Amino acid sequence: MDTKNTYLNLIDRVEAQVDKLPRLSEKQLNFKAAGHPNTIAWNLWHAGRVLDAMIAPVAGTEQAWDTQGYREKFGLGDAAEGTGFGHTSADAAQIVVNNKEVLVDYIKVGLENLRAFVNTIGEQQWDEIIGEFHGKPERRQDRISLVIVDSLQHIGQAAFLAGAPHNK
User: Fold this and answer.
1) pLDDT, averaged across the chain
2) DSSP state of 80
3) What are the sequence ranges of the domains in the chain?
4) To the nearest whole percent, how much of the chain has pLDDT over 90?
5) Which fold has domain 3-18+29-167?
6) Burial 40-69 (b: 16+ CB within 10 A, else e)
7) pTM to 2 decimal places
8) From residue 46, how far is each of 26, 41, 86, 99 by CA, in Å?
9) Contact criterion met (CB below 8 Å) for 167 and 157
10) Using one digit for the tens of pLDDT, what is the confidence trace for 35-70?
11) How far apart are CA 156 and CA 92, in angstroms?
């Protein structure tokens, strides 16, 4: 399997994990397990924001956050201007979303945009330096890997929280 098809397969696996999330009430989406501020809603919002905000610039596209009205659909104001990286407990607590479908739709738009971008990358382009990350050169492949791993991690955390006995 070549690099492109490997990444397309990984994107499909992320989407499959999103599709497995159960039906969740507003209370379940925003429940703070053991008082931790990263709720199911925060984890899914963060996964969507990272997909959108970190891929759009390297793909040469606009963020769906702006172009498809997700900023308004979420209605979170200034609390949602970043991606969630570096959020304090107080910042994370401001991410309250009562509609799972908006969260899932945003992630799926991000995955579709990532899929479209990956389909444009030639075999020789994966190792091209696209910028810096934490003071080190960042290759196109590094960025895509980071986004996919982060998505899987936070969607997995959301799934864990959804299945926890205290969140029923």
Assistant:
1) 93
2) G
3) 3-18+29-167
4) 80
5) Four Helix Bundle (Hemerythrin (Met), subunit A) (1.20.120)
6) bbbbbbbbbbbbbbbbbebbeeebbbeebe
7) 0.94
8) 17, 8, 11, 15
9) no
10) 888 999 999 999 999 999 999 999 999 999 999 999
11) 18
